[in-house]
Design a protein that fits this description.
The protein is mainly α and about 500 residues long. The chain has 2 domains: about 1-25 and about 225-489, no CATH class; about 35-225, no CATH class. About 85% of the residues lie in helices and about 0% in strands. The protein is globular and about 65 Å long.
Amino acid sequence: MSRTTSTVARHALAYATGSVVGGMTRAILLPVIARRLAPEEFGVFALLLAATNFLHLIFEWGLVTALIKFHHETDDASERRRLVSTVFLVIPIVDALLALALIQFRGFASVVLFGNDQYASLVVIAIAIAYFGAQFQIFLSQVRAQNRSRDFVIYMAVKGVVSLGLTLWLVLGLDGGVRGFLLGTLAGPAAVSIFAIAVLLVRTGVDVKGARARLRRLLGFGLPLVPAALGLWALTHVDTYLLRVLGDLHAVGVYGFASELCLPIALLMTSIHLAWPSFAFARARQADGAEQIAKVFRHLFVLLVGGALAVSVLRREILAVVGTEAFHESARVLPLLTLATVIYGASQAFSTGLQVAGDTRRLPFFVLLASITNALLNVLLIPMFREMGAAAATVVTNVLLCALVLRESNRQFPIPFELGRIARVLVGAAVVLLAADALGERPLAVGIPVRVALLAVFAPMLVILGALSARELRALPSALAEVARGRAA
């Protein structure tokens, strides 16, 4: 593994720590969800979170990536201070006005989501979660732009602790049900974003000179990303909604619980994605930048697939620990969902060329095409295969999106992604998964060690298949040690 890979991995490791600590709320709450909510109730919760993620993207305006890009385009401290003032004074006000307008349509939103208006009050909480979640993520983009990965960990930890504490009190102490889970989800980002943004503005000082022109430039880059992001949201969540329409809330709950079990892969993918833009924008300026970007991606893709494989191989054991009998159907869906998550992560990296070139105009079209394909496949497959049909549709459309984005991205800024070696990583994972599934059901004391032993075969198999060289595999321990030393330093 190269030194540049280690540099990105070091930041990714710190971001992973922050994401894990911040996401600990969801991990700890999984057994609570399984024991406090029936699949139908969890289906309600899952649909509200899907709606929250939709609104979150609208409230962000594409500024998470735009702020990082424009931060790296200047070394002038005054310009960076004006950038901060423009973003963190104007956007919260605009978003608050938008949130108030959306609340007026809470009853209509409940009808669209559930077929009736009985969940209108929960829709209001979902809008608040989206608002504060967007402010929190925009603030974290400033932290990421400065490569302050340790501060990122602290903010994520505080958010997680606040959300977890309030959720446990509301759900276990007051038997708050779905409302308690939602209010707990709201508490963390709301508390941290209000405090952190105020401190940031006081510390950097307020300078709004040229704010209008600067905001136009930010939105000029960021707004074209919003339709693409909404399309990616559709790829991720339209299956959940169509399961409710074409199936029932029970199917949504089972499918949603399987999605929650993908949390380790999602956290790993998020951690890599958080470190990736700063690395890619900086590395692209160098003579061998494209080659280094491709090499680093392949190394990180191995880690991402390895995480997905571990969850898939051990899914029965995981469900035995954190689930209940009502959610055991989730085991069938999980391998397809982990694969879909991995492919989604690849599509984000494949768009690097478009972002480096600053030409994101065609992304919305590609995502729209994939989203329409996804919806059609869901309509076709869900009535026959329910949750499995929804998962299969997501895999197919994520592959389509990868192909479209990679082709256009390499026209703008060619990056020699080694697709053959990347495919061999997936082949190696499939072989290990099939071998593990051939064992069938086993008691925990037997199943865990046997399946972990099979997982250990994955790395040498990658060398046999040519996905990694023996030298890269041998260098992995020292590279990880370098990451740890860099973090400690």
